[in-house]
Amino acid sequence: MLWTVDPASDEPLYAQLVTQARLAVTRGDLTPGERLPAARELATSLDLNVHTVLRAYQQLRDEGLVDLRRSRGAVVTGTPADLTAVEEALARFVAAARQARLSPEATTTLLQEELKR
């Protein structure tokens, strides 16, 4: 799995990692029993503080998606959720936004505002 972060994003860096892991589990890119990269290794590769990665891993543990053990690291334990309905709704949303000729930024803003409700 390729991990990325956008330092310019409004979303905190640790939350970006959590989101990526959730999606990877949901899509089957990460499966139960698979190990996540060591926190120090991931932090180094993304030029992050190790505590940022650990915070993401702890949140994933609290959500039941990973198990954290000193000797084994972070291991995926969660099962993927069915996102079919969400993906279909998003496809319809994007199609409607394109039809209305909204920019990607405006589309994203609309989605973010709706999520805040």
UniProtKB/TrEMBL annotation:
Alphabetical list of InterPro entries matching this protein: Tscrpt_reg_HTH_GntR (IPR000524), WH-like_DNA-bd_sf (IPR036388), WH_DNA-bd_sf (IPR036390)
Entry keyword annotation includes DNA-binding: yes
Positions of the HTH gntR-type domain: 11-79
PROSITE patterns reported in the protein's UniProt record: HTH_GNTR
Highest taxon above the source species: Bacteria
Pfam families membership: GntR (PF00392)
Keyword Transcription: yes
CDD domains: WHTH_GntR (cd07377)
Protein keywords: DNA-binding, Transcription, Transcription regulation
Annotated protein name in UniProt: GntR family transcriptional regulator
Lineage of origin: Bacteria, Bacillati, Actinomycetota, Actinomycetes, Micrococcales
